[in-house]
Amino acid sequence: MTSTSTSPTPARGPADHDVRAQIVAAATEHFSRYGYEKTTVSDLAKAIGFSKAYIYKFFESKQAIGELICANCLREIEAEVSAAIAEAAQPPDKLRRLFKVSTEASLRLFFQDRKLFEIATSAATERWQAVIDYEARTQQLLRDVLQEGRQSGDFERKTPLDETVMSIHLVMRPYLNPLLLQHSMDSTEQAPALLASLVLRSLSP
Amino acid sequence: MTSTSTSPTPARGPADHDVRAQIVAAATEHFSRYGYEKTTVSDLAKAIGFSKAYIYKFFESKQAIGELICANCLREIEAEVSAAIAEAAQPPDKLRRLFKVSTEASLRLFFQDRKLFEIATSAATERWQAVIDYEARTQQLLRDVLQEGRQSGDFERKTPLDETVMSIHLVMRPYLNPLLLQHSMDSTEQAPALLASLVLRSLSP
What we know:
2 copies of one chain form a homodimer.
Chain A: H1 16-34, H2 41-48, H3 52-58, H4 62-87, H5 91-112, H6 114-126, H7 129-152, H8 161-176, H9 178-181, H10 191-202
């Protein structure tokens, strides 16, 4: 394995991406024990046995490490949702799965993995780039399903597509955003199916 | 003014409901300065110049005082929403106003009046009786509008009414519940109209 890094300091020892992965793994472990907010880059450096300066060669801040952990988590949710949608043949069924699987995946990744919850809430509160990108991709996924349904004749075409995307995304928000999801626990069993049905009625041609 | 109280101790001086109102007014003032969570019944007693025991003759706990403040606030939201609905002639317009005015009234009463916010979040988190009753009445208001629209032929009748009420209430939740509303500030301008339109499309016969 050779380093192709353009890092300001020539890599000595392992390739840069290995060091980054090592830092992220140690940070995830450390955040899960002591919390994301409370941990400093100094704490991380001490725990890994690196100098603080060395960590700063790979990540410009603690948030940059948090962003990578957060982005990985959001990618995992997306992968699950995309796979579930791909399995369905018809646009209405794709939409039902979008509601169901994105709620289930968000619940599991944000809450059952408690170590991610604090990062996820910081990310959502401060609107990190990873979150903005995730929301844009989720809206794109929704738009693709809607367009497919408009072409197949399953969905109405009178309402501007932008409006349909925006309003359905608002309906899904309490089950996608960890800040709202933490207060929506009573309804995560029933809501995705109920809301998908309501949305499908709103889309009938 | 005479007291008709059945309080265990005979009222001496002002009528009971005057004393209750005096306690609630002082408590509201005190909560707004020092916060609901931090204030104790002893603090309130000191501030009003009553004994703690005297306050306990009128309210069994701090929460009982908070519940009354909260119930008054929720009644105010309801009164505004009901008045706005009564002004509209047609069920679709009633539904639009239900979304718009309940969001506006919730925003104003929970947030602009910061003193109520902490009580509102405690009430919503702990699901005080005032909140449960408010949700039931909000659902009843929604049900009345839906039933009127079904009778007038404005709304479809195939979906069970209970399901329609439940799913529309879920759509409105982020704008009614202060725990969700505090994280929905970016969308309070656009969302009520967008969501009302989506819901109206879902109700078309």
